[in-house]
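Q: I have two molecules that I believe assemble together. Could you output structure tokens for the complex as a whole instead of separate predictions?
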Amino acid sequence: MNITLSSEAITRLTERVEGAQTRAYSIPKLTNEYPEMTADDGYAVQLSLLKRFQEQGHKLIGWKAGLTSKAKMQQMGVNQPSIGFLTDLMFRPENSVITTEDLVHPKVECEVAFVTKDDLTGPDCTAAQVMAATDYVLPSIEIIDSRFAGFKFDLPSVIADNSSSSRYVAGGRPRLAEDLDLRTLGVVLEKNGEIVEMGAAAEVMGHPAEAVAMLVNILHHLGESLPAGSFVMSGGITAAVAVNAGDHVIARFQELGSVSIRFE
Amino acid sequence: MDINRIQQFGDKLYEAFVARSTIAPLTEQVPDITLEEAYAIQLRYIERRLQAGETIVGKKIGVTSKAVQQFLGVYQPDFGQLTSNMVFANGADIDLGGLIQPKAEAELAFVLKEDLNGPGITAMDVIRATDYVVPCFEIVDSRITDWKIKIQDTVADNASCGVYVLGDERGDPRKLDLTLAGMVLEKNGELYSTGVGAAVQGSPVNAVAWLANTLGTLGIPFKAGEVILSGSQSQLVPVKDGDELVCTIGGLGSCRVSFSGRSAV
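A: Yes, here they are, computed for all two components at once.
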């Protein structure tokens, strides 16, 4: 790992991100203060944040892949994917009402989620290994919420901010991955009854399992692995859509049913 | 517009088609041209192709996506006629020399087993009357200079239809989710874009029902055996010599086409 920040700086940035996440305010991107900050520095802050949450009793449920499509990377001005952690306190049930009061500027995206039945470890994890280790897949919506002012950030900053992860919702219809063609799986995202985004899951690195393999390999780089029973969100199939209080969002997946949520 | 003028424009479009050349937008020549007149011009253009020995084999539906509708400022689809010289088999290598300024679109095609006599046709009738669906490519082309089209221009020009390629894998619409089926388009082995059936009027089935009702109102027959290209699920793909495209529709199958030579423009 290419860590340039001192442990004091990592602690300071962890506290800054934690404050922004828990009290829902925006902060300038971290590279304003630390222009030399690397992606690995970002992960050091993210892992320090995870440790802090775990010490407070939050449970690690799994991980998310982010910035997995070319379009997404261009939209956000970065050039590689990223990962973030998912805890029990970030989970919301299907059909629930999500408050926007404790979010800064939330956006939603639809993703294929994987639940694993075997351990997966890098550095050479492949999509085929991911498919073999998958217990089932299910439809999901991720609510991303960059804590950076105006969604303006670079890769080290977004990684430190847990790759913009804030809430996630998993839908009710599990399927066996081998029964589906995850590459051509279609998804339609509707907001207040109107189609706002659509695409096929190939948008995610050609195949969502590729994104999970990438995630396992990044975990290895961080000295971590993906234990059996993990929940993994493989990355947004469509562009992220901004939501406000009063909005109703439904993601309809081919073969996987739908996921519906409201915002208040 | 009088009938002679309509005939003239239809003839000009036919002559441009034969010569692989283009004409100035009709909407520049006749700024107040109506959609009705544009369809009348289309009928003349097609009549000329039929006189030259072709037959009607189906219909194409265009302007089915929100993006294209917003671009053209119209909030309903349009249609054109498919004729017998337009069809290519799956995997065909298309000589671009026969086209003017082609672009490709990935679509779902329907083949009817019963006539659909609108008005009054619903999505349920379309599913019942469909023999099978197949993935396909439409190679759109324009006889209008630089694709500078308004809705009347593309309608008169047979909805910018060029040629089309049908896949081999046939699906039963009663066994497929045509609304949510994903579409993956690859160009030269790399992911180019993806789409979903819902991009076409909420569902390709809705587009075909619209067509049946529109044709019924106009008194144009819509017969068993006809092929219907239901509307693009992808962006327009520019194509040149050596390009190969594959589109795959989830749960259905693929269609493949390659290109060689040079188009007129």
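A: One point stands out. Chain B has seven helices and 13 strands.
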